[in-house]
């Protein structure tokens, strides 16, 4: 059964990448080259709303050692990568003008979830009280469970 599923999953990815050839994989910036990443915040909001998928935004900087460490663990974690396929994904190396994306300040790395009604899920937080949306490499299992929570809330609330 798993072989058949794996084959189907492979076909699905190919189909998606051929229907979306305009997305260069450099948009992943190393967070998961096989995942489909959106280019802009506006595009991500549009796609989340129209696909009924939650949006996951990762704010990071190329020269930040904390961002780099989280990126490495995120990209190498097979469970995270698989679950990430259920999201509209955006990673930003700049701040947006939307103040909703920095509810407790502008720091990196920070991960926020937005549901398809375009509501920032401020209730899905990491383990730090002074940086609610920050994750360290050691928090990867918490990030995974928060991703599951974002998907679960999607089903129960919408």
TrEMBL record:
Residues 1-24 are annotated as: Disordered. GO terms for molecular function: dystroglycan binding. SUPFAM superfamilies: Thioredoxin-like. It is found in: Endoplasmic reticulum; Secreted. CDD domains: AGR. Keywords: Endoplasmic reticulum, Secreted, Signal. Belongs to the AGR family. This is Anterior gradient protein 2.
């Amino acid at each position: 059964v798993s072989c058949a599923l794996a084959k189907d999953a492979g076909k699905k990815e190919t189909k998606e990448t051929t229907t979306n050839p305009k997305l260069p994989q450099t948009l992943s910036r190393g967070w998961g080259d096989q995942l489909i990443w959106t280019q802009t915040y506006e595009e991500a909001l549009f796609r989340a709303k129209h696909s009924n998928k939650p949006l996951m935004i990762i704010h990071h900087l190329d020269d930040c050692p904390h961002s780099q460490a989280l990126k490495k663990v995120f990209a190498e974690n097979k469970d995270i990568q698989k679950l990430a396929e259920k999201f509209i994904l955006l990673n930003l190396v700049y701040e947006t003008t939307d103040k909703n994306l920095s509810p407790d300040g502008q720091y990196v790395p920070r991960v926020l979830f937005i549901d398809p009604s375009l509501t920032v899920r401020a209730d899905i937080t990491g383990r730090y009280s002074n940086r609610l949306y920050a994750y360290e490499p050691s928090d990867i299992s918490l990030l995974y469970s928060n991703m599951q929570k974002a998907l679960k809330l999607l089903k129960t609330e919408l």
